[in-house]
Design goal:
Shape: globular
Structural class: alpha/beta
CATH superfamily: Vaccinia Virus protein VP39
Strand content: 25-35%
Radius of gyration: 16 Å
CATH architecture: 3-Layer(aba) Sandwich
Number of domains: 1
Oligomer: single chain
CATH topology: Rossmann fold
Number of helices: 6
Length: 216
């Protein structure tokens, strides 16, 4: 992994504070059961040995359900060590089955390739063009040929800020255009997420297949 830059450190401090001061169900993106993400993973019909990355996973329950489904090679990446420690504590002994990575998804270099790269409610926090390009390069090289990318961001009808930060909204067209060089769209659809605060956030969910056929 790369060394954190000053910008990374500022972002890290922000998210460490968020997770220190709020419980899991006190953040807008909280889901007790991440059903949409799980349904997308199930559609790929992958073996239980498939390598799955949850990028920006924080203390999401996505990893809990992947374990229940029998998946054996799961990595959770987040810039917040506090968030990952909270997830480890919740999982107890099962936490040893997971690879935990403290890094900024905008500037990271995982040292392996994945069958599935999942990113819910993290990618839309990347608003700087250089960071977006860096992230796209990461998934291009870290998702196996024929592997899958699941991304969920705020749609154009969703919020334009979250947790005090600006976000980048996406449409099916803009997301597909962004990924067209290396990924083939499988499906895109919008979902209304009901937050713990009785508000509604409109998310765009998309799944893509890595169409790389040779070395880049």
């Amino acid at each position: 992994m790369k060394t954190l830059t000053d910008i990374d450190r500022e972002r890290k401090a922000h998210w460490e504070k968020i997770y220190r001061t709020r419980q899991s169900n006190e953040v807008s993106w909280y889901e007790n059961e991440p059903k949409v993400s799980l349904d997308l993973v199930k559609q790929f019909n992958l073996p239980k040995s498939a390598r799955i990355m949850d990028s920006g996973g924080g203390d999401s329950h996505f990893v809990d359900y992947l374990l229940k489904l029998g998946y054996e090679n799961i990595t959770v990446l987040d810039i917040s060590e506090v968030a990952l420690d909270r997830a480890k504590k919740r999982l107890g002994a099962d936490a040893k089955k997971i690879k935990w990575v403290v890094a900024d998804e905008a500037d990271c270099n995982p040292d392996e390739q994945f069958d599935v790269w999942h990113d819910r409610a993290a990618f839309h926090f990347l608003t700087d063009e250089k960071e977006i390009i860096s992230y796209l390069n990461t998934i291009k090289h870290c998702i196996k040929p024929g592997g899958y990318f699941i991304v969920a961001t705020f749609s154009e009808q969703g919020p334009n800020k979250c947790s005090g930060l600006d976000v980048k909204q996406y449409s099916e067209l803009s997301m597909t255009e962004l990924l067209k060089d290396s990924f083939e769209k499988i499906n895109c659809f919008t979902v209304d997420h009901h937050t713990p605060f009785n508000t509604v956030q409109n998310f765009l969910y998309c799944s893509f297949k890595h169409k790389k056929t040779g070395a880049d």
